[in-house]
Amino acid sequence: MGSGPCAGSASAAPGSGECPIVIDPLVGGLAEETEALRTAGPLARIDLMGAPAWTVTTHAEARKLLTDTRLVKDISRWNLWRSGEIDESWPLIGMVDAGRSMFTVDGVEHRRLRVKTAQALTPRRLAGIRPDIERITGRLLDAIEARAAEAPEEPVDLKSAFAQPLPMSVVCSLMGVDPALEPRLHRLYEAFFSMLTPQDERLAVIQELDELYAEMVREKSLSPGDDLTSALILADEGGEPLTAEEVRGNLEAMVAAGHETTVTLILCAVRALLTHPEQLRLVLDGEVGWEAVIEETLRWESPSTHLLMRFATSDIEVAGAVVREGEGVVMSYRAIGRDRAQHGQDADRFDVRRPVPVRHLAFGHGPHICPGAGLSRLEASVALPALFERFPGLSLAVPVTEIRNRPVLTQNELESLPVRVR
Hints:
This protein is of the alpha+beta class. It is built from 17 helices and 11 strands.
């Protein structure tokens, strides 16, 4: 990561128009990148794999802009898209031009699509899925325990053995997806998010996902059940029902965002606790609750690093700078979560003893706040205590400096988390 070669003036400040901060798609130095963005100020100029954009780095400005109706999700408002400078060959296009869903429209249409999801993803449905979360958690922990008994010297990758399959199994159960599809979905999303995937392969993955979900919607339309897919299809209260394309778009985006968020939340919480043993002891002794662990982890290591993208429909003044009509705006949630003006001068420190609630923006804010936030928190609140109760001697199997991020520009995703369970 770095500011990259700066045009114009050698003395130009990183994050200015003359010297944009180059966001590293391989995520080689996340801490350094976060610090560079914070130093650049509330609004920084960035280079996003060849596309110039603005990014927001502070809590206060993010809260304002996330409710500003002059920023929209409609890619047709992006000047680089209209001019043809950005097209389907851009590696991040799947994050920006993601089909029709509540994640990609605004205003009245967004409310129409979102209310249907709210009707389907009710507190009752969340409460009803908790036993499934507990069952899946127990099954995965049983498998880890059996493997550890057979090969006690071998470390366990907590990502592939626990943190990754848990939310995928949960969301498939919620959606009524055949569990046999889970390995295929893992493979497709791994390829979709990785910046190492060639763009032609990524476009093929997007097509395969579209077809998979379209077929699922067709099957559920013919034979609905007690699942989220069927509920979205049947949710017709308060206006016209969702089209098949809209149901598919909502489901596809919810699965992508939902399982990725929870994987990161679980892994980053475990890594943080194992590298802060005094805080882990407070939690295990009951002096600090798991809710505090979850909220502090979301603040400190936001599951989304850079959330793409909104477009200005008119000029917008932000902290002394101006976002011009047609320009793209990114939310850099990792920098926002470590905003010293919001969280104090020790914002870079993981501390479960911070006053609760920790007012972070890890799940967004305003009309587009993540609809799966409750599910992600629920999964973590089941998984984390169960993990540490089953394996009280849990420890990292490698130095923390050897734990790397995957080359995923938008997600704070670890490659793996090797641990010893005994």
